Amino acid sequence: MFPTADPGSVVSGGGISFLTGNRNAKFSYGYSSFKGKRSSMEDFYEASISEVDGQMVACFGVFDGHGGSRTAEYLKNNLFKNLSSHPDFIKDTKSAIVDSFRRTDADYLNEEKTQQKDAGSTAAAAVLVGDRLLVANVGDSRVVASRAGSAIPLSVDHKPDRSDERERIEQAGGFIIWAGTWRVGGVLAVSRAFGDKLLKPYVVADPEIQEEEIEGFDFLIIASDGLWNVFSNKDAVAMVQDISDAEAASRKLIEEAYAKGSSDNITCMVVRFDGQ
Questions:
Q1: What are the TM regions of this chain, as residue ranges (predicted)?
Q2: Does residue 177 belong to any structural domain of this protein?
Q3: What pLDDT does residue 91 have?
């Protein structure tokens, strides 16, 4: 269980909405966020449901900051706004996601008040457009789906020792070395992130995107590495398979991650698809 000394440190909530064009197909979502054993909170999250060009869209994201909370907070406040206002969001969602991620990163880095040049953040986002699901990730926050009880990874962590990531970094003139774990420039343990001005152009905010049909998925788990450091995809799905309330499921996951010894901030969102 969570420590009782700071009960207000656990934030949770959720909501419910309907899929575009089908009032019989609804989804619910829940989130929980916990500082855990860290001295400060650098995780942020965002759920955004809006109408774009006559279609209802939903965006869910988890942002895990490093070197401070500023970058992750900036993503919470700006990333989905930039995406939903992109002129091609509905007709070419993948391109809109790539453009919006790059623009948000550039805008953040160009702000005069950006002082922490070594601050950055991951981003894991699930975007629902009609019956389509697009997952975009930068860094090592992760999205996993459940289909008939099986865990389906919808993102792949961006780690410096991934062969393709190492090649990309070295071709850009960077390097990775072992310093307790593999790190870009001996500093950063993820190979893609927003911010991190001192490590550009090796550490980029270009998302990898996976597109799926919503049909057949029971729920999604979107979480920072505070969860995935102690949970496999399979075990996380199994833990909440039978919990129908999305908020209760998200809270269960961070509670169990803390109990299993996670030493990081822990943030989790669960999106359940019902009545399909």
A1: none
A2: yes
A3: 93
| Those residues with Cβ within 8 angstroms of residue 17's Cβ, 6 or more apart along the chain or in another chain | 26, 27, 28, 49, 56, 58
For the stretch 171-190, pLDDT in tens is: 999 999 999 999 999 999 99
> Can you give the pLDDT at residue 20?
53
Q: What range does the domain containing 173 cover? A: 159-192
- The arithmetic mean of pLDDT across residues 19-32, rounded, is 72
Residues 187 and 74 in one domain: no
Average pLDDT of the chain is: 91
Tell me which residue of 201, 138, 139 sits closest to 172, measured CA to CA: 201
Q: Do 77 and 88 contact (CB within 8 A), yes or no?
A: no
Last residue of a domain, one of 192, 213, 242: 192
Domain total in the chain = 2
DSSP class per residue in the chain: ---TT-GGGEEEEEEEEE-TT-TT-EEEEEEEEE-TTSSS--EEEEEEEEEETTEEEEEEEEEEEESSSHHHHHHHHHHHHHHHT-TTTTTTHHHHHHHHHHHHHHHHHH-TT---TT-EE-EEEEEEETTEEEEEEESS-EEEEEETTEEEE------TTSHHHHHHHHHTT--EEESSSEEETTTBS-SB-EE-GGGTTTSB-PPEEEEEESTT--EEEEE-HHHHTT--HHHHHHHHTT---HHHHHHHHHHHHHHTT--S-EEEEEEEEE--
